[in-house]
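Worked Example 4.2. Read the sequence first, then its structure tokens.
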Amino acid sequence: MKKGFILFITMFAVSFSMDTYAYNILVDLSGLYHDAGIPAWLTSLGNNVTTISDYSGQNLSGYDIVMDFGYDEYTGLNDAKKAAYSSYLAGGGSLYLQGENPTGYGFYDTILLNYLKNNLGAGNITALMTEDLHEEPYPQFHNQTTTSSPVTTDTSLQYIIDFALGITNPGNGFFVVHTDTRADMTIWPSTVITGDWSSIIGFDHGNLANYPQGKLIVNFDVTDVDTTLPSFPTNEIVLEKIVDYLGADTNAVPEPATFGLVGIGVLLLAVVISRRKTVS
């Protein structure tokens, strides 16, 4: 009985360690960004987070995940960042990039889309670039549903957005969330959407033609990373799944609590083996 219980504890500890990791994450809040609370939230999940406010040639190779939440047309994705991110992806890195709605930020979205298509080889991505994508009547909040993808298989999870750039074709990638055609979904002032679209797209290993070693998530709405909104408890589930997806296949270090569980299990197993040897 005791040996079986101790073996169970050891197996539980090992299985627990397979799912609990602390990722080394670099968070870039250069230029315009939406929520300064993101680094603290990522840290609360057990990750090791480094935050920078201005990219100046930092070495990215030591990070499991690089998350750039800036969407300023001047500092958000400059040539230095493009080169650094491409090199990071070439080394098998996992990258998150932030976009925003086309009104006021359409120029940056164009820079971002061109980088995806022309530099990374993300395929023929198409987007709804005409003013704001919104729901009539106001307010503009709208639910999207997660898809069955490498990020999550929970297709019932509702994800709330507000003003977004809508991607109608993810190119070589996949929709992370999507919205089916709805009569009340329009492009201002009255153009009805006639197909499925998404505010978040992803690219798994092999999807980026020029950098097949890397993984990438691109989000075109900042609402999902606003920790101050009442909707955030739902949205944080999607964001946490994105972090887990990007962190998978990295050399992440198990959290200290995991080491403790494994250590206890191994110690108890050693005691059992020692007693058996003494009896024999």
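Now turn to a second chain, presented in exactly the same format:
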Amino acid sequence: MKIMDCTLRDGANVVGNGFSPELTKMMIEGLLRSNIRIIEMGNAKGLGATEKGSPAPISDVAYLDLIHPYLGQAEIGMFLNAKRFEADNVAMAADKGISFLRLGADAGDGASTYEKAAVIKQHGIKVRYSLMKAYLLTPEELAEEAAGLEAHGVDEVTIMDSAGTMHPADAGAYVEALKARVKIPVGFHCHSNLGLSAANALSGAAAGMIAIRYWVKPYLLLWLLMLVWDAGTVWPALKVRGSEPTPPQPVYFAIPPRYRPRWAPAHRRPLPCRMTKYAG
């Protein structure tokens, strides 16, 4: 199981269109210490969004300069909405050494992105692809679209539950259909509007997906890293005061007041979290 952390991109929608340089560096370094090796970051709306009316705290160039010291330690890339595709932005990202671009388009629009994927590949950049609003197509239809993308050089496809309305049975059916049709890696991008993202991820894993995309609000990042405890490549070297990794056990910490959910009482309420094996 591979895990891509996109807190620094998708999670930035909570605060605007991006995180500050200081927070970006802090979270990248924390993710690297936690053995996360695929990281998506930058403008929440993707590469080129600043010029299209969605400015982040710093420019795409500044974000890419910021990650340069970390490029040898992980795959670090950006999202690229196909509607905001500009060849010059792709060339700039390639010059800065970006590891991948995650090209995204609504399910059913895959054929319109073939040339854009080809441009990215020409620059030596890995093309990850998000099948946004995957539920617009049936599992079989989405699998056919994924096959077309594979034939045009896409390196990996992600089933994106954009509205967060899929159920575990849906997640499993979509993953099974794509796995039966393509040879490239199949991932799943969960949203938890119905509180089912973890269940959907587990269902997708059981169906054979090999990559999971997630983002969390910054105060929950530690919680999620604990949730995926001992996932093989995620956090195998956690030590407590120099000891060997502790076995799965309940962990409690308090949510800072400014980030406390509306359902939390006024007093400090610990958020119960359990370390548990997520996927072997």
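Notes for the reader: Confidence is low (pLDDT under 50) at residues 217-280. The CA atoms of residues 25 and 238 lie 21 Å apart.
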